[in-house]
Amino acid sequence: MTALRLLGLLAGLLATSRAGSAPLVDIVGGRKARRQEFPFLASIQTQGRHFCGGALIHPGFILTAASCFQSRNTGTATVVLGAYNLRRRERSRQTFSIRSISENGYDPQENLNDVLLLQLDRQANLTSSTVAVVPLPPQNATVEAGTNCQVAGWGAQHHRGRLSRVPRVVNVTVTPSDQCRPNNVCTGVLTRRGGICQGDGGTPLVCNGLAHGVASWSRGPCGRGPDFFARVALFRDWIDSVINQPVGCAPA
Description:
Keywords: Antibiotic, Antimicrobial, Chemotaxis, Digestion, Disulfide bond, Glycoprotein, Heparin-binding, Membrane, Serine protease homolog, Signal, Zymogen. This protein is mainly β and 252 residues long. It has helices at residues 3-13, 236-243; strands at residues 27-28, 31-32, 41-46, 49-58, 61-64, 77-81, 94-103, 116-120, 148-153, 168-174, 184-188, 195-196, 204-207, 210-218, 227-231. The strands form 3 sheets. Strands 9-10-11-15-14-13 form a 6-stranded antiparallel β-barrel. The longest helix is centred in the first third of the chain and has 11 residues, at 3-13.
């Protein structure tokens, strides 16, 4: 496939606008992730039920989407690391309550700044295989159109389906910047249905080993994209300022 045709197909996936959106949960298409393939992946739960994803970016902090908690109380939520099969008791799991949250001007009407930092009640025990930190891009870094990335999460493979027992991963392609928005990284799947859907907000978009995006919203039918991710590189300095606060200073 020529680069010109690739860009044409990607452009066909998108029509920029403010667009209404729904919370995200499902990974549509793709394949079952291998055990320990995404050791930074977090399952955010209420009463033992997964409702959003997230990424461990520091032993004490999870990066997720602010939209995940629009109608939920963080006081009743838990964060699970080291999980694979959500329907089994696994010795690799570490479960945390949320000590505090930090957001940065989230605008639900415009779907802007959809990032949230969850401070865990204690630091995670990092292991070489089941629990690890994912690195972030530097401030204002960009990811080029045509870049192949991955997004993984627990969830149904179709709208209103049951949550998957294990995470699924789908390969996606970054769309041209003029077919997205400056505050987002946008992706699509060219050859078939695939991507994110209702309920899996907050799961990371990983490009070249870095968490460049946080799943925020999707346009069009489930799995047909384009998918919009909050652009993490715009918030790197803010993220560092929260993580590096002196002990005892609670985030706002």
